[in-house]
Amino acid sequence: MHSGDQRFEARNPCQDIKIAACLRGVAKSLGSTRVLRGFDLDVRAGKVTALLGPNGAGKTTAVSLLTGRLAPDAGTATLFGLDPRRSAARTRLGVMLQTAGLPDMLTVAEVVRLQSGYYRYPRTLVETLALAGLTDLAERRCGALSGGQARRVHYALAICGRPDLLVLDEPTATMDRASARALWATVREAADAGAAVLLTSHDLMEADALADRVVVMDAGVVVADATPAALRARAGGSVIRCRTRIVLTAALAMPSVHDASVEGAELRVVTGDGAATVRALLLADPDLLALRVADATLENAIALLLAPANQRIAA
Ligand SMILES: Nc1ncnc2c1ncn2[C@@H]1O[C@H](COP(=O)(O)OP(=O)(O)OP(=O)(O)O)[C@@H](O)[C@H]1O
Predict the structure, then answer these.
(1) Ligand 1 lining (C-beta closer than 6 Å)
(2) Most buried of 8, 35, 225, 293 (most Cβ within 10 A)?
(3) What are residue 79's DSSP bridge partners?
(4) What is the pTM for the complete model shown?
(5) Which domain of life is it from (predicted)?
(6) CA 106 – CA 157 distance, rounded (Å)
(7) CA-CA distance, 233 to 180, in Å (whole number)?
(8) E-strand spans in 73-190?
(9) Domains of the chain by range and CATH?
């Protein structure tokens, strides 16, 4: 490598040792669909990064590029500073995809043992099964597992090699809340121990509970990249609900109101100044009923980011 290349390597963020995986200026089409356009993503060591967005936004495609299942049409995909298809990079990776089968006739312990054999420093079988909540199911054939139990086996396969990057594509989609919370705790532990974690999810409570950073994408581009707290702050302070005769357009025109909608018999208003909006609502309709004020959530923030421009009102 000559000195010019070395200077490039030093400046290139994808070569930073703290960045486990990196997409830069990526474009990708599948069939006639332009799925990703000028897409950037960094997945950092010791952090949980949540990649969020509506169905079809391109999340799974971005994950496939980072894990070497797809190659970009333009731009670069890097895994531990290498091409994601290189086995030296892939052996440091643990992946839990949305759709993956399990061999029906093998037991849970057998598939975990098989997968562990792929890695250089795997966890013990006992440890992996315990982390995935599978100790009592070790001898059950995979074909006899429920959907949520099978998902836990996929999680076990993703973590058994002590990966430096753990990629979880909608990990808890079919799990009950208790199983999901147990998984969150082990994911948090992995990140606190230094692993990079990339999570896609439609469960915004999950993203809020786990993520250090949230990347929101829509139609193949990043629309926000911030901490959950910063995104919540952007949504404004409060969500107000009440039964009222105030019409939607009047609510949207009130000062500090970011967003408003009618939900059943109620008006729901997202506002940057709860007290001022309550005053304005009571002034407009002194007879309003069932008034409730709550803090804005990550869900409010993302709904606001993804709302069509003509439904947004600047604060
Ligand atoms: N093999 C394919 N051929 C053509 N289009 C595809 C193919 N795979 C995916 N797509 C399209 O690419 C777009 C992005 O798909 P992708 O699965 O990445 O979205 P996603 O954000 O993961 O969605 P979801 O939340 O539903 O899982 C969608 O419009 C999808 O229909």
Answers:
(1) 30-31, 33, 35, 53, 55-61
(2) 35
(3) 21, 82
(4) 0.80
(5) Bacteria
(6) 14
(7) 26
(8) 74-79, 93-96, 165-169
(9) 9-227 (3.40.50.300), 232-311 (3.30.70)
